[in-house]
Design a protein that fits this description.
Helix 6 crosses helix 8. The protein folds into 2 domains: 177 residues, 3-Layer(aba) Sandwich (Rossmann fold); 70 residues, no CATH class. It starts with a strand and ends in a 7-residue tail after the last helix. A 6-stranded mixed sheet has the order 6-7-8-3-9-10, sandwiched between helices. The protein has a 4-stranded antiparallel sheet with strand order 2-1-4-5. The radius of gyration is 19 Å and the shape is globular. It is built from 8 helices and 10 strands. The structure holds adenosine-5'-triphosphate. The site of adenosine-5'-triphosphate has 13 residues, from strand 1, strand 2 and helix 1.
Length: 264
């Protein structure tokens, strides 16, 4: 069986003038359809660079990405990205922000009425249909992230790329949104690749956690399976032995074996 998403021997070197920095070294990973995979690692190790390569926003120096056996060379609606800072267009309403993507992707395959219904359907999925006519400045940070997720889902991507989607939110809003993303994953069974700094978030949400070593020349240090059945409930997991073991394993990797050393 071929991999759904394959990161194949990726190296990435940035060059500025005479200076070159090798950020990623020989990254290989395969992700199955419907899997939720998180990438965790210290600041600056190259997580966003890797996600951008999968998104097609940055080219790998060596190696590449295959999605259903097709090489990824540019951005496309089959790989929708949700960034830490929502990136909604401020002059458009919530509805229009989602509709814009829907019109772009489904201009030929859906009628106007279908595109309207599909936009509302996706706003409903993230419980934001009630704010359809509001502008981004009129809604909270958590709500903006929900709209960003609706916009991404509305493109029916093969892979959803989440770049620290909860990073800018307060703890409670973050927990609510994590629960929503878990519920959406249960319902839609989408394939998700997420970057996070947060160990609990990684264990709570993921089927597998990819741990990166520190840069430069960051590699995949370890991949951990999280064998907890879905749906998961955060309160029950707090005392679950498997959860605690996974959490401990990631903490050991990050804070013992691959401690972050501040540049001098
Ligand atoms: N366009 C670029 N040109 C040169 N260097 C870059 C470029 N983009 C990223 N880098 C460098 O690559 C390294 C990895 O950056 P990246 O943002 O991918 O790390 P990260 O793990 O996502 O960090 P954080 O967790 O802090 O967001 C950093 O040293 C960064 O300075």
């Amino acid at each position: 069986m071929t991999a759904y998403l394959k990161l194949d021997h990726i190296d990435k070197t940035f060059t500025r003038g005479a200076a070159t920095t090798e950020v990623l070294k020989d990254i290989s990973l395969t992700i199955d359809r419907g899997e939720y995979v998180s990438i965790i690692g210290h600041s600056g190790c190259g997580k966003s660079t890797l996600l951008n390569i999968v998104a097609g926003l940055t080219r790998a120096t060596i190696g590449g990405v295959l999605l259903e056996d097709r090489e990824v060379n540019s951005p496309g609606p089959d790989r929708a990205v949700v960034f830490q800072n929502h990136s909604l267009l401020p002059w458009l309403t919530v509805y229009q922000n989602v509709r814009l993507g829907v019109d772009k992707v489904f201009a030929k395959s859906k009628s106007r009425t279908e595109r309207h219904d599909w936009t509302l359907h996706n706003l409903n999925l993230v419980q934001m249909a009630h704010a359809a006519d509001k502008r981004p400045s009129e809604i909270s940070g958590g709500m903006k992230q929900r709209v960003g997720i609706a916009r991404a889902l509305a493109m029916e991507p093969k892979v959803l790329l989440l770049d620290e989607p909860f990073g800018a939110l307060d703890a409670l809003t973050r927990a609510h949104l994590q629960d929503s993303v878990m519920a959406l994953h249960q319902k839609l069974n989408n394939t998700i690749l997420m970057i996070t700094h947060d160990v609990d978030e990684a264990v709570l949400l993921s089927d597998r956690i990819v741990m990166m070593t520190n840069g430069p020349s960051a590699r995949i240090g370890e991949v951990l399976d999280v064998p907890l059945p879905h749906p998961r409930k955060r309160l029950e997991l707090a005392t679950n032995a498997t959860y605690l073991k996974c959490r401990q394993r990631v903490l050991e990797f990050l804070y013992e074996r691959h401690r972050y050393i501040e540049a001098a």
